[in-house]
Protein backbone atom coordinates (compact mmCIF):
# COMPACT_ATOMS: atom_id res chain seq x y z
CA UNK A 1 0.00 0.00 0.00
CA UNK A 2 1.33 3.42 -0.94
CA UNK A 3 1.83 5.76 2.00
CA UNK A 4 0.36 9.27 1.39
CA UNK A 5 2.90 12.03 0.92
CA UNK A 6 3.58 14.24 3.93
CA UNK A 7 3.55 17.98 3.22
CA UNK A 8 4.16 21.11 5.21
CA UNK A 9 1.01 23.23 5.30
CA UNK A 10 1.43 26.04 2.80
CA UNK A 11 0.99 29.55 4.23
CA UNK A 12 -1.85 31.06 2.19
CA UNK A 13 -1.12 34.53 3.56
CA UNK A 14 2.20 34.35 1.69
CA UNK A 15 0.27 34.30 -1.61
CA UNK A 16 -1.61 37.15 -3.26
CA UNK A 17 -5.40 37.02 -3.33
CA UNK A 18 -6.94 35.29 -6.33
CA UNK A 19 -8.96 38.43 -7.09
CA UNK A 20 -7.01 41.70 -7.31
CA UNK A 21 -8.75 44.75 -8.77
CA UNK A 22 -5.51 46.20 -10.14
CA UNK A 23 -4.80 42.99 -12.08
CA UNK A 24 -7.67 42.97 -14.56
CA UNK A 25 -7.45 39.39 -15.85
CA UNK A 26 -7.63 38.05 -12.28
CA UNK A 27 -11.34 38.93 -12.36
CA UNK A 28 -12.08 36.16 -14.86
CA UNK A 29 -9.47 33.78 -13.46
CA UNK A 30 -10.41 33.94 -9.77
CA UNK A 31 -12.74 31.32 -8.25
CA UNK A 32 -16.28 32.29 -7.30
CA UNK A 33 -16.71 29.61 -4.63
CA UNK A 34 -14.74 28.39 -1.64
CA UNK A 35 -11.68 26.29 -2.44
CA UNK A 36 -11.87 22.55 -1.94
CA UNK A 37 -8.88 20.68 -0.51
CA UNK A 38 -8.41 17.26 -2.10
CA UNK A 39 -6.32 14.43 -0.72
CA UNK A 40 -3.82 13.03 -3.20
CA UNK A 41 -4.52 9.53 -4.42
CA UNK A 42 -1.99 6.90 -5.49
CA UNK A 43 -2.29 8.03 -9.11
CA UNK A 44 -0.98 11.51 -8.24
CA UNK A 45 1.73 10.28 -5.89
CA UNK A 46 3.06 7.53 -8.18
CA UNK A 47 2.36 9.18 -11.56
CA UNK A 48 4.92 9.54 -14.37
CA UNK A 49 8.18 11.32 -13.65
CA UNK A 50 10.98 12.68 -15.80
CA UNK A 51 14.47 11.24 -15.94
CA UNK A 52 17.87 11.95 -17.42
CA UNK A 53 16.86 10.39 -20.73
CA UNK A 54 14.42 13.28 -21.26
CA UNK A 55 17.23 15.87 -21.23
CA UNK A 56 19.50 16.45 -24.21
CA UNK A 57 22.97 18.01 -23.88
CA UNK A 58 22.66 21.74 -24.41
CA UNK A 59 18.97 21.97 -23.46
CA UNK A 60 19.96 24.45 -20.75
CA UNK A 61 21.90 26.69 -23.17
CA UNK A 62 19.44 29.09 -24.79
CA UNK A 63 22.35 30.83 -26.52
CA UNK A 64 22.85 27.79 -28.76
CA UNK A 65 19.84 25.44 -28.53
CA UNK A 66 17.88 27.30 -31.23
CA UNK A 67 20.57 29.31 -33.01
CA UNK A 68 21.63 28.61 -36.56
CA UNK A 69 25.17 27.36 -37.03
CA UNK A 70 27.65 30.13 -36.32
CA UNK A 71 24.97 32.55 -35.11
CA UNK A 72 23.94 33.80 -31.65
CA UNK A 73 20.86 35.48 -30.17
CA UNK A 74 20.88 39.26 -29.85
CA UNK A 75 21.03 40.69 -26.34
CA UNK A 76 22.85 40.74 -23.03
CA UNK A 77 24.31 37.30 -22.36
CA UNK A 78 23.49 36.05 -18.86
CA UNK A 79 23.77 33.01 -16.62
CA UNK A 80 20.86 32.13 -14.31
CA UNK A 81 21.92 29.66 -11.64
CA UNK A 82 21.05 28.51 -8.16
CA UNK A 83 19.89 25.56 -6.08
CA UNK A 84 16.58 23.79 -5.59
CA UNK A 85 16.10 23.43 -1.82
CA UNK A 86 13.45 21.98 0.46
CA UNK A 87 11.87 23.73 3.45
CA UNK A 88 14.84 22.73 5.64
CA UNK A 89 17.46 24.09 3.17
CA UNK A 90 18.43 20.59 2.02
CA UNK A 91 19.23 20.14 -1.69
CA UNK A 92 16.63 18.58 -3.95
CA UNK A 93 18.50 16.56 -6.60
CA UNK A 94 17.34 15.31 -10.00
CA UNK A 95 14.56 17.88 -10.24
CA UNK A 96 13.38 18.93 -13.69
CA UNK A 97 13.73 22.71 -14.03
CA UNK A 98 12.28 24.36 -17.14
CA UNK A 99 12.33 28.01 -18.22
CA UNK A 100 10.67 30.10 -20.91
CA UNK A 101 11.02 33.81 -21.63
CA UNK A 102 10.77 36.69 -24.09
CA UNK A 103 13.76 37.64 -26.20
CA UNK A 104 15.96 40.70 -25.61
CA UNK A 105 13.36 42.89 -27.31
CA UNK A 106 10.56 41.67 -25.06
CA UNK A 107 8.84 39.39 -27.56
CA UNK A 108 7.94 35.72 -27.14
CA UNK A 109 8.24 33.21 -29.95
CA UNK A 110 4.49 32.67 -30.01
CA UNK A 111 2.03 33.26 -32.82
CA UNK A 112 -0.27 35.28 -30.55
CA UNK A 113 2.45 37.67 -29.39
CA UNK A 114 1.84 40.76 -31.52
CA UNK A 115 4.27 43.15 -29.80
CA UNK A 116 6.13 45.20 -32.44
CA UNK A 117 9.57 44.06 -31.24
CA UNK A 118 11.14 41.67 -33.80
CA UNK A 119 11.37 37.92 -33.41
CA UNK A 120 14.98 36.79 -32.98
CA UNK A 121 15.60 33.99 -35.52
CA UNK A 122 18.34 32.56 -33.28
CA UNK A 123 16.44 32.47 -30.01
CA UNK A 124 13.81 29.89 -29.10
CA UNK A 125 13.15 31.19 -25.59
CA UNK A 126 12.92 27.91 -23.66
CA UNK A 127 15.21 25.39 -21.99
CA UNK A 128 15.33 22.59 -19.44
CA UNK A 129 17.78 20.88 -17.11
CA UNK A 130 17.97 18.57 -14.09
CA UNK A 131 19.35 19.70 -10.75
CA UNK A 132 22.49 17.80 -9.75
CA UNK A 133 23.17 15.90 -6.52
CA UNK A 134 23.57 19.22 -4.69
CA UNK A 135 20.33 20.64 -6.08
CA UNK A 136 22.32 22.95 -8.38
CA UNK A 137 21.04 24.07 -11.80
CA UNK A 138 22.09 26.67 -14.35
CA UNK A 139 21.04 28.14 -17.69
CA UNK A 140 22.77 30.33 -20.25
CA UNK A 141 20.45 32.76 -22.00
CA UNK A 142 19.91 36.44 -22.87
CA UNK A 143 18.32 38.94 -20.54
CA UNK A 144 14.68 39.32 -21.60
CA UNK A 145 13.27 42.73 -22.43
CA UNK A 146 10.28 44.45 -20.84
CA UNK A 147 7.06 44.47 -22.83
CA UNK A 148 3.69 46.25 -22.70
CA UNK A 149 0.48 44.45 -21.78
CA UNK A 150 -3.16 45.44 -21.85
CA UNK A 151 -3.90 45.85 -18.18
CA UNK A 152 -4.16 49.62 -17.97
CA UNK A 153 -3.17 52.22 -20.57
CA UNK A 154 0.57 52.19 -19.89
CA UNK A 155 1.50 48.97 -18.04
CA UNK A 156 4.79 47.17 -18.74
CA UNK A 157 5.94 43.80 -17.46
CA UNK A 158 9.39 43.90 -15.89
CA UNK A 159 12.05 41.68 -17.43
CA UNK A 160 11.32 38.19 -16.14
CA UNK A 161 11.90 34.50 -16.73
CA UNK A 162 9.21 31.86 -16.10
CA UNK A 163 10.45 28.86 -14.14
CA UNK A 164 8.75 25.48 -13.74
CA UNK A 165 9.88 22.85 -11.23
CA UNK A 166 8.62 19.24 -11.26
CA UNK A 167 8.61 17.14 -8.10
CA UNK A 168 8.60 13.40 -7.55
CA UNK A 169 5.41 12.90 -9.57
CA UNK A 170 3.68 14.52 -12.51
CA UNK A 171 1.14 16.34 -10.34
CA UNK A 172 3.86 18.07 -8.32
CA UNK A 173 4.59 21.02 -10.56
CA UNK A 174 5.30 24.54 -9.32
CA UNK A 175 5.60 27.64 -11.53
CA UNK A 176 7.07 31.03 -10.69
CA UNK A 177 8.63 34.12 -12.26
CA UNK A 178 12.14 35.41 -11.64
CA UNK A 179 12.87 39.14 -11.83
CA UNK A 180 16.20 40.99 -11.98
CA UNK A 181 17.79 43.10 -9.27
CA UNK A 182 17.49 46.83 -9.82
CA UNK A 183 14.64 46.79 -12.35
CA UNK A 184 12.43 49.87 -11.64
CA UNK A 185 9.44 48.23 -13.33
CA UNK A 186 9.13 45.60 -10.59
CA UNK A 187 7.59 48.04 -8.11
CA UNK A 188 5.19 49.37 -10.75
CA UNK A 189 3.93 46.01 -12.05
CA UNK A 190 0.24 45.35 -11.18
CA UNK A 191 0.94 41.61 -10.93
CA UNK A 192 3.80 42.11 -8.46
CA UNK A 193 1.67 44.60 -6.50
CA UNK A 194 -0.83 41.83 -5.70
CA UNK A 195 1.78 40.15 -3.47
CA UNK A 196 1.02 41.23 0.13
CA UNK A 197 4.41 40.64 1.74
CA UNK A 198 7.53 42.58 0.57
CA UNK A 199 9.68 39.65 1.71
CA UNK A 200 7.83 37.40 -0.75
CA UNK A 201 8.59 39.85 -3.57
CA UNK A 202 12.27 39.85 -2.59
CA UNK A 203 12.28 36.05 -2.98
CA UNK A 204 11.40 36.52 -6.67
CA UNK A 205 14.25 38.94 -7.44
CA UNK A 206 17.57 37.42 -8.55
CA UNK A 207 20.58 39.41 -7.34
CA UNK A 208 23.57 40.08 -9.54
CA UNK A 209 26.29 37.48 -8.87
CA UNK A 210 29.69 38.78 -9.90
CA UNK A 211 31.39 35.70 -8.43
CA UNK A 212 29.75 33.54 -11.10
CA UNK A 213 30.05 36.14 -13.87
CA UNK A 214 32.43 35.23 -16.70
CA UNK A 215 34.60 38.28 -17.47
CA UNK A 216 34.16 39.72 -20.98
CA UNK A 217 31.45 37.13 -21.63
CA UNK A 218 28.38 36.58 -19.43
CA UNK A 219 26.78 38.30 -16.42
CA UNK A 220 25.37 35.96 -13.76
CA UNK A 221 22.26 36.15 -11.57
CA UNK A 222 21.61 33.80 -8.64
CA UNK A 223 18.12 32.42 -7.97
CA UNK A 224 17.57 29.74 -5.33
CA UNK A 225 14.21 27.94 -5.48
CA UNK A 226 12.85 27.03 -2.04
CA UNK A 227 9.94 24.60 -2.24
CA UNK A 228 8.11 25.04 1.09
CA UNK A 229 8.28 26.71 4.48
CA UNK A 230 8.37 30.41 5.40
CA UNK A 231 11.32 31.01 3.06
CA UNK A 232 9.45 29.43 0.16
CA UNK A 233 9.68 30.96 -3.28
CA UNK A 234 6.30 32.41 -4.22
CA UNK A 235 4.65 30.18 -6.81
CA UNK A 236 1.78 30.93 -9.17
CA UNK A 237 0.11 27.62 -8.30
CA UNK A 238 -0.15 25.73 -5.00
CA UNK A 239 0.43 22.14 -3.97
CA UNK A 240 -3.19 21.99 -2.83
CA UNK A 241 -4.18 22.34 -6.49
CA UNK A 242 -5.18 26.00 -6.53
Automatic annotation (TrEMBL):
<comment type="similarity">
    <text>Belongs to the intradiol ring-cleavage dioxygenase family.</text>
</comment>
<dbReference type="InterPro" id="IPR050770">
    <property type="entry name" value="Intradiol_RC_Dioxygenase"/>
</dbReference>
<dbReference type="GO" id="GO:0018578">
    <property type="term" value="F:protocatechuate 3,4-dioxygenase activity"/>
</dbReference>
<protein>
    <submittedName>
        <fullName>Protocatechuate 3,4-dioxygenase</fullName>
        <ecNumber>1.13.11.3</ecNumber>
    </submittedName>
</protein>
<dbReference type="InterPro" id="IPR024756">
    <property type="entry name" value="PCDO_beta_N"/>
</dbReference>
<dbReference type="InterPro" id="IPR000627">
    <property type="entry name" value="Intradiol_dOase_C"/>
</dbReference>
<dbReference type="Pfam" id="PF00775">
    <property type="entry name" value="Dioxygenase_C"/>
</dbReference>
<keyword id="KW-0223">Dioxygenase</keyword>
<dbReference type="InterPro" id="IPR015889">
    <property type="entry name" value="Intradiol_dOase_core"/>
</dbReference>
<dbReference type="GO" id="GO:0019619">
    <property type="term" value="P:3,4-dihydroxybenzoate catabolic process"/>
</dbReference>
<dbReference type="InterPro" id="IPR012785">
    <property type="entry name" value="Protocat_dOase_b"/>
</dbReference>
<feature type="domain" description="Protocatechuate 3,4-dioxygenase beta subunit N-terminal">
    <location>
        <begin position="8"/>
        <end position="41"/>
    </location>
</feature>
<dbReference type="GO" id="GO:0008199">
    <property type="term" value="F:ferric iron binding"/>
</dbReference>
<dbReference type="Pfam" id="PF12391">
    <property type="entry name" value="PCDO_beta_N"/>
</dbReference>
<keyword id="KW-0560">Oxidoreductase</keyword>
<feature type="domain" description="Intradiol ring-cleavage dioxygenases">
    <location>
        <begin position="45"/>
        <end position="229"/>
    </location>
</feature>
Amino acid sequence: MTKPAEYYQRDREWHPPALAQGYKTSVARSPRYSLISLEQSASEITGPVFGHNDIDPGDNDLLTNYAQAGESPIGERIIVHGRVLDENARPVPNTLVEIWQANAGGRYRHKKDMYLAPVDPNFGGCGRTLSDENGYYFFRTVKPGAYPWRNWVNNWRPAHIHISVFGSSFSQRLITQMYFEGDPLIAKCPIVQTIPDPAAIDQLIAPLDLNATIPLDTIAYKFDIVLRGRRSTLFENRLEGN
